[in-house]
What does this fold into?
Amino acid sequence: MSKRTNLILQSLLFVSLFIIFLEGVKFFQTPFFDASCPKVHYPLSNDRIDVVIPCIEKDLKTLDRCIEGILKYGENINRVVVVSSKRLTDKAEWFDDSRYPFDKEAVALALCKGDEKKAKEYLFKARSRVGWYYQQLLKLYAPFVIPAISSNVLILDADTIFINPVQFQTESLESNFNPGREWHKPYYTHMKRMIPWLYRIYPRYSGIAHHMLFQKPVLEDLFDEISRYHEGEVWKIFCNLVDEDHLNYSGASEYELYFNFALSRCNLMKIRPLKWRNIDTLSSLDALQSQGVHYVSCHSYMRKEE
It folds into this structure.
């Protein structure tokens, strides 16, 4: 084979591989659902965004920075409300989580399918995950429980800090979603149990990004759909449908549920990738800010002592 022929073949191979690569990118960014399906036209609002931050004491090291960051860099932000069992900061409003229609004991009982003995053991078990499931329900119910709250509610994890400007709504008032890359099968199994027609919309996009704009008309529709398939209160249904094998792990996700539901119901919800990092020390904030990173999450389980 001549050198010229070899070069031509190599060029053809390169072009073929490049085309395959482009098609792969297109596939992974293309939704599974049929865009021609009827969509819901939600009565969305231009109300300023209220921020809700569920928090416990393990995230006190990041809470004040979390509040300061969203007030400084979040566009169109109004109130910031911290949901907790006691006041943890003076930098935001406090909403007592005892005012919700459930508590940790009730959540544990629902997760254990009404078995009181098992629920009590689960509640006081070392490293119990009941608090993790509980905070998901605090987020989902916030727009219905907190008085005079906006119809646009930004749910924000207490260990997440914004360090550059971010817009959470489109010009048409829909949510801007930042996609994560996490894939955890039990989340989608649980989601489908709650709403049988619901499934993962994008093959490479996750809703796990440590914040999300909940819009009340969408959330009301989500609750109505859940109620259509099940009897009872949504928070109980959410707990009852968690697989027993995942009670000590991660068996459900409020972010995946809302993310995939909203994108399946409304064509105008937007995927808008942000630059973000999981970090183990807050000392890196200035450097990451100068690199254009929009926000960071400094989780307690990986946080270094400073």
About this structure: The two ends are 64 Å apart (CA to CA). Strands lie at 49-54, 77-84, 93-96, 152-156, 160-162, 176-177, 211-215, 270-271, 276-278, 295-297.
